[in-house]
Fold each of these.
Amino acid sequence: MAYASFSQFLTALDQAGELKRISLPVATELEITEFADREMKSPGGGKALLFENPTIDGAPSPIPVAINTMGSRARMAMALGVASIDELAHQMQLILKAKPPTGFREAWTLVRQGIDLLHARPRHVPDGPCKEVIHRFKDGAPPDFTLANLPILKCWPQDGGRFITLPNVHTRDPDSGERNVGMYRMQIYGPATTGMHWQVHKVGARHGKRYYQRNEPMPVAVTLGGDPAITFASTAPLPDGLDEILFAGFLRKKSIDLVKCESIDLEVPADSDFVLEGYVQPGETRPEGPFGDHTGFYTPIDDYPVFHLTAITHRKDPVYPATIVGIPPMEDFYIGSASVQLFLPVFRMNFPEIVDIALPAEGVFHNLVFVSIRKQYAWQAYKIMHGLWGMGQMMFSKYIVVVDDDCDVHNTSEVLFRLCANTDPQRDSTFIKNPCDALDHAQTIPTIGSHLGIDATRKLPTEGHPRPWPDLLKMDPAIKSRVDQLLNPKP
Ligand SMILES: Cc1cc2nc3c(=O)[nH]c(=O)nc-3n(C[C@H](O)[C@H](O)[C@H](O)COP(=O)(O)O)c2cc1C
């Protein structure tokens, strides 16, 4: 199901009992974070919060703030219009495995997939709700509505200022014309100026580099709100060149309506709550940060590009979407988990022996990866580690632990048991060199470092363990059902 607006999604959350409305005046400086952090740390991710009366520097803001809207398995699935993310993962698998049909049923399934993919293509429309109100910034002089009017959060005490935390940043490759949408936080520098925190490995940074080389200003549009499928798609680790707008259309089974920006040559989703239009000037950078980050620590100040606004357009009754990041678990855990679940069929297509993958919350996205495999031959676990380290943003995975297929990778305690029981640390580990997450403060040199892979599978004689591998304890099924019956006697 596709949502016509972010507000419609919030109404659906409300009706499902997944939204708490907070009518008290709550400060956008730190206080919203404290409310949201308590909610995100409650079992299963708590509820979404809608702050109906946020304040900016003590003054009331007429724009409500919604936070933690995707911060549970149920809400993440609702955001993508399904009962469970498994449904979408299954559709991905069907598309990847599509073969010529051998019967009517298979032909029909293929036709339906074709229709879904057709919906993925965006539609170009002349106007949209995101332009109900238009503020142009002439000659750099801000009009009466600027970034200062948005209820943008200062998240943590040592943050360098206010940050837009859930922005969909739209850019275009100047050579191929290919579009990209990525989520990169934006520090507020002034009424019409922000930072643009696309890290060196991200597609926005690659597009930016091409504009710098051509010495041309880079048009950038940032959308906030709209159908949450777009917000999710902008976080998803799609391969460079795979269009997030197309992907969002596929997820929600309805084309995204795109409308031209007012002051730059880019198109954006027409249903957005806000559109910030502007440009990044080649070579211009400014210190960005500190920021209380996904890692649970402050990322220090570093130089990043600067975004200059040329216009803000918005709906008549917009809602400002936000998240906070910090010590896990946070909302981003559920967003990241949905990505892993959706892309599991892609991993499996490359490595059919993979049974399941989990990125536990403690690993903050890619610091820790558990993979279970159906092992057939010696050193297969190492093949999987190297394969994953070579796939897109999995390159950042600091620790990969490979276990056998009978271990539930979503049960961290079970994986740690296998890790402790099944490994000789020296024999069963490998260190490699790879690019690292730019946020990782532990690396000696930022953005590069070592990664550790641990093979916690049962060892074969050819893997340096000449003795027979012992059996894992398992109760006889007949005894189990006898005890079941003793405990719960059937009448
Ligand atoms: C809440 C949230 C905030 C994020 N902030 C940033 C950020 O500031 N900079 C960045 O490079 N990636 C950030 N990411 C990760 C990117 O959105 C993610 O890597 C995405 O796949 C990048 O898209 P791209 O591959 O099209 O560049 C964030 C992710 C989430 C969920």
Amino acid sequence: MIRVLFADKAENWPRYEAALNAAFAQAGLNAEVFQPGEAAPDSIDYIVYSPQGPVQDFTPFTRAKAVLNLWAGVERVVGNATLTQPLCRMVDAGLERGMVEYATGHVLRYHLGLDATLAQQDGIWRHDGGVPPLARNRSVVVLGLGALGAACAHALVALGFDVTGWSRTQKEITGVACLSGPDGLNQALSRAEILVSILPDTPETTDLLNAQTLALMPKGAAIINPGRGTLIDDDALLAALNTGQIGHATLDVFRIEPLPPEHPYWAHPRVTVTPHIAAESRAETASEVVAENIRRGEAGEPFLYLVDRARGY
Ligand SMILES: NC(=O)c1ccc[n+]([C@@H]2O[C@H](COP(=O)([O-])OP(=O)(O)OC[C@H]3O[C@@H](n4cnc5c(N)ncnc54)[C@H](OP(=O)(O)O)[C@@H]3O)[C@@H](O)[C@H]2O)c1
């Protein structure tokens, strides 16, 4: 019998109970799932984890073969000094589609100028005779070409956008101008009419969008940030919004969540706040990933989506 601890928030258990048990059965695993406190930590083989759950000290889990994070982001666990087990992050089809829908939806909002259209429903026929640009005339940049960024880049290409992507290591993605490294970042930003940042939170990505880098973007550019709040120097972004260097920002993630009511982003006319809803792991598909990793662990095969702890993601 494989003993699995469900170390997410207790309120998420009803969503996961049937899904995890079905995924274990489907994978041919004879597994039993325990809630925190139900089983001795040194009897647990795998920990299904989220940073919101009750486990912060992994020391007593002497037998655990892996910690299987239900989130894509690992910044709240990757530096945990008590963690000696392999750490896997979540790459889930449901999470990916959610991010694709969020990113493409907000890119289209900016591309089509929907805010202006919706705000001017006042009986005045404002056709200036101009021809609105097609997606192919709109340069969209995706920072981060991992599981989520690459999926968003593909979807934006399918919609016809002129897509540039940037990552730490060089990528090749059909239809996407792929750039990497510091020079690549400068080039990418200089063409970003609409920027989508889907980078992880690491020491290298902290404040990546700051006064210098925001100044490289075309005047009036839009920013969509479903990555992590730490990617943006908030004071620099507010200053750039106030000068019009950045035309608008849609922010899903923040240094402090929930975003405090007094934060200037709430009242800023050129900021849209969404409450960290860009993409959620879905119990059914995430459970299949957990089950596959447990199957691999039991078979002595390499885990999927293993986090490189030195790299931080
Ligand atoms: N808002 C939400 O609801 C939500 C939901 C899920 C995830 N997220 C966020 O999305 C992030 C990305 O998820 P993912 O599954 O796509 O992660 P991933 O597969 O690990 O991809 C990360 C990407 O970022 C690139 N990268 C990392 N550090 C970099 C650096 N210093 N310079 C340039 N590129 C760098 C990586 O480059 P290489 O490919 O070269 O390694 C990779 O392309 C998560 O970490 C999380 O913060 C947000």
